[in-house]
Design brief:
Length: 352
């Protein structure tokens, strides 16, 4: 048996940090011999195996979960960095990503930034350690500098989806946001709206900027039918957002149509209208970018621009695994734009 009182370094290390190298040093064996003993290799004698196992048990040695794969310079794990999971778009996209990861024998680690830029930087710094083979990412609404992303992109392949980083030369899976912003606005114009507002979630997000560009272009193309643009900026304080919307809807020149650039704005629109006695769609017609399956049971049901979330997740993961298998793949050439679809429901029906 191993005499633990004769170990050369009395508190050897903190529990949980024991390595094969440390065990080998205490037993005067090679690391290869200790590794084989722990794996019950026939190449190691039974007495030596016993010595190794007794010391490992006494010091609470825990094998590194990625030790085998690290020897092969891969972890069989990818990271997915997203703002949240409460949003139905990201939930659906995750399903698509995970389906591809499982098919390739990989695990997907999910990291939530909760829309916080500092948390995003911390997560990406942690991933620089090499614990994942690649990263699929959608940036926060506050991401406006990109050094932390550029650093990680030099270490592992990265693929962006939905909220992309235009400054990084890699694959980006997006939808036709500008065209959809135009289409949503034109739909409201065609339904008779004269003053159309748009709710904006972030100035730095490229998808938000493109949706607003489409909205503004539609107004320009129909300048004889409708007034000037009305962009309502949403911040981080829900109470302030609600109050801002209330003031806009109480104004004498209030909008008669509105485009919400993200799904979670819809609840505020409906609640403010209920509070002020405004009728949807008679007094206000509403279109929202949304993947929420419950929009059909709202009263009235909500007209939406719906993104192919599952397909976008599948595509992003498929491209990442293609990069992991092909060393010289030019990721930027794999970028794909997947069309979204306008689903017309009662929130934009013709006024009675």
């Amino acid at each position: 048996m191993v005499n633990l009182t004769k170990l050369t370094k009395p508190p050897l290390v903190k529990m949980g940090n024991i390595t094969i190298k440390m065990l080998a040093k205490e037993l005067n064996l090679s690391t290869a011999a200790v590794s084989k003993a722990l794996r019950d290799s026939h190449e190691i004698s039974e007495p030596t195996k016993k010595r190794v196992l007794e010391l490992a048990a006494a010091l609470n040695y825990v094998p590194h979960p990625y030790a085998g794969s690290l020897r092969e310079k891969k972890s069989n794990t990818i990271a997915v960095v997203i703002p949240e999971v409460a949003d139905s778009f990201f939930s659906l996209a995750l399903n698509g990503i995970e389906a591809v990861a499982i098919a390739n024998g990989y695990h997907a680690l999910i990291y939530l930034t909760h829309e916080r830029f500092e948390r995003e930087k911390t997560i990406l710094k942690d991933l620089e350690s090499g614990r994942v083979d690649g990263v699929i990412m959608s940036v926060t609404m506050k991401t406006d500098t990109f050094d932390h992303i550029k650093t990680l992109n030099k270490i592992v392949p990265m693929v962006f989806f939905d909220r992309v980083c235009e400054e990084i030369d890699t694959a980006k899976i997006t939808t036709n946001d500008e065209e959809c912003g135009y289409q949503a606005t034109q739909h409201l114009i065609d339904r008779g709206c004269k003053k159309i507002a748009i709710l904006s979630i972030s100035e730095s997000l490229s998808i938000n900027a493109k949706r607003i560009q489409g909205y503004q272009q539609a107004l320009l193309d129909n300048d004889s039918k409708c007034g000037a643009s009305c962009i309502i900026d949403y911040g981080e304080d829900p109470a302030e957002n609600f109050e801002q919307l209330r003031k806009v809807f109480q104004a004498a020149d209030r909008p008669d149509g509105i485009v919400a650039t993200v799904s979670k704005m819809t609840t505020d629109i409906y609640l403010v209208c209920m509070e002020l006695g405004l009728r949807i769609p008679e007094d206000l017609k509403v279109v929202s970018f949304s993947n929420d399956s419950n929009v059909a049971i709202l009263n009235p049901s909500l007209t939406t621009v719906t993104q192919p979330a599952f397909e976008m997740g599948e595509l992003a993961a498929g491209i990442l695994f293609k990069a992991l298998k092909k060393k010289y793949l030019v990721l930027s050439e794999e970028s794909t734009v997947v069309p979204s679809q306008l689903f017309v429901r009662n929130s934009t029906s013709a006024s009675v």
